[in-house]
Amino acid sequence: MIEIAKYHSDISRISSVDLSNPEFGKECSDHMFSAYFENNSWVQPEIIPFGTIEFLPSMLTLHYGQSVFEGMKAFKMHDGRISIFRPELHYERFNRSLERMCMPLVPKELFFTALIELLTIDQAWVPSASGTSLYIRPFCFATESRLKIKISDSYRFMILMSPAGKYFGKPFRLKVETEYTRTAEGGTGYAKCSGNYGSSFYPVKHAIEQGFDQVLWTDAKEHKYIDEAGMMNIMFMLDGKLVTPALNSAILAGVTRDSVLTIAKDQGIIVEERKIAVEELRSFLESGKVSEVFGTGTAAVVAPVKLIRIGDADYEIPEPSENSFHSKAYSLLNDIRTGISPDPHGWNFII
Ligand code: COI
């Protein structure tokens, strides 16, 4: 049994935060979790007030990017209980990311005890307004002080929590990216490592300057097949079938992706996980057989796309309606998470 030391913050900042409509990632809750990996074991697990931490500027993670994170969400259920959505899947993906970056795995007991105790201490931070949640950010980074390129011998594992509202306020515009790449097969795309995000800033900045909101990544080798959209998985309703790129080493195995595909199958919708060529998408768009395009992700949940640029051509996607599959899937996900609808797959981990 893991004993976590607890040092409570003297004052709470909660009254200064608008929990009815929190800006994603702006404020962190009063406490955070921290543990160190030293001499091959995890030590000093503690919950401490959220605040600054000390490190040497020669810390390896700052130079060589040995750093991974997860993003999951806790919800206030309609009966007042708190549930975390599918934490097992997030835990497994966290360890896959750690393994890819040559970092020590986090034991399940440590991960779950830290999560439950931190959430219990800061439970008042779980918002209850519709569409809100408490975003939970476990992360781990190399702490050894060394300028040599090497795998670090020491690490810190931390968890932050932040009240979250909507990530995207409105349907977004996507540009099919054929110049830059996010990652290649054999690279780190399936891992949630910090470098995947930092390296996407430049292409996304260019896309924004051209009037788009995000890029639709294509495979690094031929720029012929669709990978993901920005920081989300992408799904298309093509001629009545829900089609999404099959997972490979360049694509993150999204928990929301899996949940939305499961909801679609439960509703009898044909789901195809396969390679999608950009030219195939273009011909579906030209023949008017694309009824919905949307991104899925923990932060964004289900985010509709309103326009796709392929080469020089812009293709408008029909406006979402209440009957669109993704609108219904979004509502059902919210209802399952808050206990309004049954949870047939056991996705809620109730605290
Ligand atoms: C998520 O949806 O979990 C993400 O990782 C997005 C995040 C980087 C804000």
Structure, explained:
This protein is α+β, with helices and mostly antiparallel strands and 351 residues long. The protein folds into two domains: 5-164, 2-Layer Sandwich (D-amino Acid Aminotransferase, Chain A, domain 1); 172-337, D-amino Acid Aminotransferase, Chain A, domain 2. It is 23% helix and 30% strand. The chain is built from eight helices and 18 strands. Strands 1, 2, 3, 4, 5, 6, 7, 8 and 18 form a nine-stranded mixed β-sheet that branches. Strands 9, 10, 11, 12, 13, 14, 15, 16 and 17 form a nine-stranded mixed β-sheet that branches. β13, α6 and β14 (271-273) form a beta-alpha-beta unit. The radius of gyration is 21 Å and the shape is globular. The model has no long low-confidence stretch (mean pLDDT 96). Bound molecules: 2-OXO-4-methylpentanoic acid. 2-OXO-4-methylpentanoic acid binds at residues 71, 197, 231, 297-300.
